[in-house]
Fold each of these.
Amino acid sequence: MTGSVHSDPGAFDSSTFESSDFPAEILEMHWARICSRLQVEVGEVEYRTWLKQISLGPVDGDEITLMLPTRFLRDWVRGQYGDRLSHLWSGEIPAIRRVELQVARAGTAQAAPAVAAAAPAADLPQVGADLGTAAAVPSIVEARNDLAAPLDPRYTFDSFVVGKPNEFAYACARRVAEKPSSVGFNPLFLYGGVGLGKTHLMHAIGSELVREGKVSVAYMSAEKFMYRFIAAIRSQSTMQFKEQLRSVDVLMIDDLQFLIGKDNTQEEFFHTFNALVDAGRQIVVSADKSPSDLSGLEDRLRTRLGCGMVADIHATTFELRISILESKALASGVSVPAKVLEFLAHKITTNVRELEGALNRLIAHANLFGRPVTLEATQEVLHDILKAHDRRVTIEEIQRKVSEHWNIRLTDMSSARRARAVARPRQVAMYLAKQLTSRSLPEIGRKFGNRDHTTVMHAVSRITELMERDNAFAEDVELLRRMLES
Ligand code: ADP
Ligand code: MG
């Protein structure tokens, strides 16, 4: 079946026009104009994703044929842009009143390849997995029958550096990779801030299971899940979509927070989720917050998400950052002095991805110029990154925020009072001052009522220790830190 868009097929006397009335160059010219309008109307991403795949076919009577490489793309473009395309064509050439969308079969002559060169497969988002038939042209768009996004082979358990902040999540992930669907671990819900290794761990689980070859695994972002779901609705293949989803042994959905406010997709996810868990399959989900904090997700979904194992990946510590840098530097084969690693770990604190990026840049630079990595070179090469990470938080700000948080007087930050209710917040403020500013211990001490630097040192180790022991307390401090950093 092909995709006629116009609703009034009989209205035109097709004998009046021949395809030859529109030489290819003329059609190409009009098409180029339509394309640039569409590009503006729908935005670059949408355009490249869907519309750039279109190539021109012949004109027959009042109908122009547009071709797409797969049925999936054809259906999507028809559903989303069919009316708009026929409208635009009529605007260009009034004699054209219908747009026919077809799947280009292998060997189909394409009228205007120069104008509508198909995008390389890499331009297609993961959404493009083909739900369709053999009509796809594999050379243009890789026909993917599998449901999932590919797994990044670099993200393995071996390449994941384990430390206090992520050891629990790591252990849970390993457990799921060894024994999917164990009681108590389904679903596995991984959460934490940006760039702390959620995606890495999910890929590691996937790769491990695939390597063992025991089970089928589908990994995709929640965003892709939504696109796939919408595409399935449009192409009336929701049954297939559901069957595909429900046939996997392990389903992993990354960045679930994306589904906030997307009620229909949430609904579908919820049903899929239930069906899989009931059938004894494993689900792994990641998000930037815990299930209970994901307000905007349906309650029943949040409840179910929290039913298995919930593992938090905490913000990195200095020690973990150092280990990560050491491991990546080692893998690169370039020798990076400890001083440089410490400098980076001190400066770039929030996000492992950025830390990694900075190190990679240094390494590339060293390789390119054949010069050893030094602290001076680092400061020069990473000038822009470091500037962005310069923390401008002041000790006064820290004191203010901390006092507000625990509802004590600001003056108690420098007072001699030793009651726990004021002493503890004061220690937290000292700890944060050490973490978030480049002030030395004596400088910090001075700002806290002229205390000695050993008092600050003691505060830092005391708070570190308490954070390790007391989760709720750690979260409080972490929250303060995030507030101060943003
Ligand atoms: P998230 O999904 O939580 O935003 P990612 O998993 O994408 O974060 O991690 C960002 C980058 O940092 C990736 O390149 C990942 O390999 C790396 N990374 C994060 N945590 C670790 C870790 N503990 N050990 C090694 N690499 C890590
Ligand atoms: Mg991620």
Amino acid sequence: MPKIRCSIFFSVFFLVISLSSSTLFAQQLGYSSNKNALGSQAMVVSPHPLASEVGLAILKAGGNAIDATIAVQFAQAVVYPRAGNIGGGGFMVIRLNNGETATIDYREKAPRKAHRNMYLDQAGNIVPGLSTKGHLAAGVPGTVDGLIQAHEKYGKLPFQQLIQPAIELAENGYPVSQTEAARLNRFQDDFKAVNDDPNPFIKENWKEGDILKQTLLAQTLTRIQQKGRAGFYKGKVAKAIVKEMKEGNGIISRRDLAKYRAQWRAAVTGQYKDYTVISMPPPSSGGVALLQLLKMVEDYPIEDWGFHDPRTIHLMVEAERRAYADRSQHLGDMDFYPVPIDSLLSKEYVEGRMANFSPKKASLSSDILAGAFQGQIKESFETTHSSVVDKDGNAVSLTTTLNSNFGCKVWVDEAGFFLNNEMDDFSSKPGVPNQFGLVGAEANAIQPGKRMLSSMTPTIIEKDGELFMVIGAPGGSTIITAVFQVFLNVAAFGMDLEAAVNASRFHHQWLPDRILIEKNGIKEELKEKLKALGHQMYEVNYMAVIKAIHRLQDGSLQGVGDRRNPDDDAKGY
Ligand code: DON
């Protein structure tokens, strides 16, 4: 309950710790993560071994990829509480083995009482922390309705069976990994700042192997199991959310919850050479931006130039600069704003965007589209993704999020889960960056009932009409460029999927005008060449965390979790 205080969002220290020694006690934990799996029939890649295990069991019990994905998302809500969720939202992209595609958008919505200037003070300036921490930062959660609708349309096994493993994990508890323990320790002050009552997450000195039991969450999941959407959006759970809101000056109402509906949308699709890319349309910018990027580089001989050749990076960065400029201006929730998708993806438009590309010189973002940047990007890695393929070749790519680690940090006292802080993905004020440094305008302004723009890019790729890759990632604004690069690492540079995922990446998002690079990821000599072209570089520990499946030429499946998250896990059979 309410005591809103701001604290430092990101600490390199904990990140380094969390990367260093994760599987030291794997045997005591009873699980360990496997980064690279081969399967002749089916595959699950998720951010946690226990979630992958649940997915695999559902697949082996005859569930299809949609069933397994639903079970994985519920399991993640328990074993990956910093991002796996029922208090947030996400996007699911589906490709059935007959080529049929669908997407479901269960992104959070702005509550009815939300308004354009709700995060500004009287002088019209952003109030720091208001859109990221505490009750007012939460959008109306979409996850439960999204999963239920996905099941109604495509599920094979009973819904009750899919949610049961999550209930058991919550009720019996599970041993936290070293990475999770570090996260829990890192956010103690934040938990206490916005929650007055005790909850299972508030505890000093979490250690690897400590058992996290979530009894209230088990009860909430059981309600959903018994009553479907009404078990979350009505009755006791809805009442608990609204009570929580009232205690913390939040604005989500009973009506907001009762009216929430996930939305089926046609996938955004397009060609890159022999590949068909199937991805998420707005309110995610992911699919449109990914396709723009691929089209912008398609006519250049990057295969000949090679991976991390200065010409390749320069070209890809210049494409990224232009695609993110478009993102900030043109993309938002299509139910509220006419996003010109066809124009943005047309050949003429994309060629026009690259007309002023010079192989010899970096552009200036200020010349690409007007805009000014203030503030810094803050690294944060809290969203999560799962990729699943079943034995019949159906595929699902799902990205889900609370936005920041543990969302707005508010844990619903009587229902046992964290709420998102997705409202920060709106443009609170034109031209002022959000926590990912992204700027926006009218297309992504706050309006009641509107969905905030996302960068999540759950994607499925076909080659010559056959399933080729299932891919996606957490990582805020860096998700799009990570999917772009990992796909090209395989498709253009001939890398094996594990090498492709683990290869160092770079990222440009128009503003600020600089290339983010991963620490020790780019050789000094290459950096010098990029600097000579006029690029500025800024080092971060790491960016998006890919989870992908590659269907190999013999039809078998390679699943890869990213070295960047020690708990990422691939399981197949
Ligand atoms: O929807 C978005 O683009 C963000 N809310 C995603 C946040 C994210 O990926 C956090 N980091 N991993």
Amino acid sequence: MKPPLTIALYPGDGIGKDVTAAAFEVVQAVETHTEGLAVEGTWLDWGCDYYKSHGRVAPVDFLEQLRPFDAVFLGAVGWPEQLPDHVTLEPLIQMRQSFDLYACVRPARTFPGVPTPLKDDRALDLIVLRENSEGEYVNAGGCFHPGAPEEAALQTALHTRKGVTRILEYGFILAKGRRKKITLITKSNAQRYGYVLWEELFYAMAEEHPEVEVDRIHIDAATLHMVRDPGRFDVIVGSNLFGDILSDLSGAITGSLGLNPSANLNPGASVPSLFEPVHGSAPDIAGKGIANPTGAILSAADMLRFLGYPEPAERVASAVEKAYTDGCRTPDVGGTLSTEAFTLEVVRRLS
Ligand code: NAD
Ligand code: IPM
Ligand code: MN
């Protein structure tokens, strides 16, 4: 028997707590159906509540505490009314950057019976692949004369040949395993250094993958096409910020942000990978027990697959699919089930 998978469970704030509990309940249930799978979860109480007693949202050595785990599962962090976002979100960004989790994979698809806001309600199935280690998220810049009338803030993005090349490679490989189309999102018409580098590397790589159809769209037009003709997308690859924006939009067009999973990966490296739903802590519905746990549950399935357990991962994904086919839905997608009730419906369909 293989050693148990060690998972750090970091529910965080708001609905992060509900959806992490839901996802881990499903993991524990699928464990009982899978010979050879053992999962050991370690719960972490970091976040806004931790801040009240410790004056910080996570321990100073939180990265070292996380490093030995096979994976980290995060619910969501942030609660702007309690603490400024740049304080609560710091550990999330640090995990991604310090463990060099450069590939952020965010699949978005429609589910049976889930209404979408689009006129054309054909099924959608796309992936937003987001560069996750540099770009607009590097902490490069500064504030001069803070508070003074001449205050100036400088925020610099960093796009490296190595960083862009590896995410594009990941994208072409993903596309090859799917409908063989990749769309690069840029803004090279206005940002002439960083995104021009992206385009040069993209077109050079395209020549090595003639079987993959390539497309390039600026971020502004991309938001339009996502709403007007989302079927044209298979794998969408872009910088950290563009990937962030398009992942929320892909949630909206598939029916709810609560549906979308996310994996933060550094394939082959001996660091824990990070799995989390795309959505945030949703203070507007926190404490009501109505958060949609689908994105979190599917993130847990992706975690099992990435850690070498494709069979239970598939079992979880098909249980979710069956739950939707049978009409089980939380309020965000037009149903009445609570987080717990929906989770139970998924668990029931695992066997
Ligand atoms: P949000 O994603 O929390 O919520 C946006 C909207 O979507 C809200 O109306 C919310 O109710 C709805 N929603 C989100 N997830 C849902 C779910 N599972 N089920 C049903 N409805 C859902 O974004 P926000 O309100 O802009 O941000 C709230 C906080 O979360 C902020 O502090 C923000 O910085 C943080 N945030 C954290 C993460 C993360 O931890 N990965 C991601 C995004 C935002
Ligand atoms: C996400 C979130 C984060 C991001 C925030 C919370 C820093 O929006 O994971 O999509 O921008 O990456
Ligand atoms: Mn986001």
Amino acid sequence: MRYKHEFNDAARKSVVILISGRGSNMQALLEAKLPCSRIAAVISNKADAQGLEIASRHGIATQVLSHRDYADRESFDTALATAIDSYQPDLVVLAGFMRILTQNFVAHYEGRLINIHPSLLPAYGGLNTHERALADGVKIHGCTVHFVTANLDHGPIIVQAAVPVLMDDTPETLAARVLHEEHRIYPQAVRWFCRDHLKLTPDGKVLLDRIEQPSAALIVPELE
Ligand code: GRF
């Protein structure tokens, strides 16, 4: 992989990760040990999120901010932004953060808030993506990293990974195949951002300074 500019370690970017549960994407980011980024903190809206323990084991500061302690979405998001901003992050990464965010929150982090979604967006926004893909009989499914905008699960796309849907797949086997790719593409997206190879333009376009472009098609089932 070649980049136009070599990464300068002095310019390490600070990242805050938001989780609500298992935290496997967060773990993939921590274990990727990206030299271009420093994970400043992991914040969860749930005290029992498994990911909190994983973050602590990696020596990362953790914080719990329960949405139940706030009267409404707006006041929770205001408190959340205050908590995040105390770490002065360059990038905020949603990793299984199960809250719909207010317009004000999203606008505050425009161009520096990313999410991973378990489908090939714009197909299957929302929940139960694997069940819905199987019910529709699609042959190719996958995951998407995108910038977050006020339009839920429809922000500008950064990178996608496609996987075959196999004939005997269950939602669980398909989810596992997709998750494996999530753990590959999310660290890559963060790496691009932290190296300044990835930007969101003011008119909402993704600028990605990639040199290689793939040429192979994924055909499912395979041709004879
Ligand atoms: C992942 O499938 C992610 O795409 C979605 O929520 C799930 C979180 O899993 N946004 P984990 O907490 O990262 O293990």
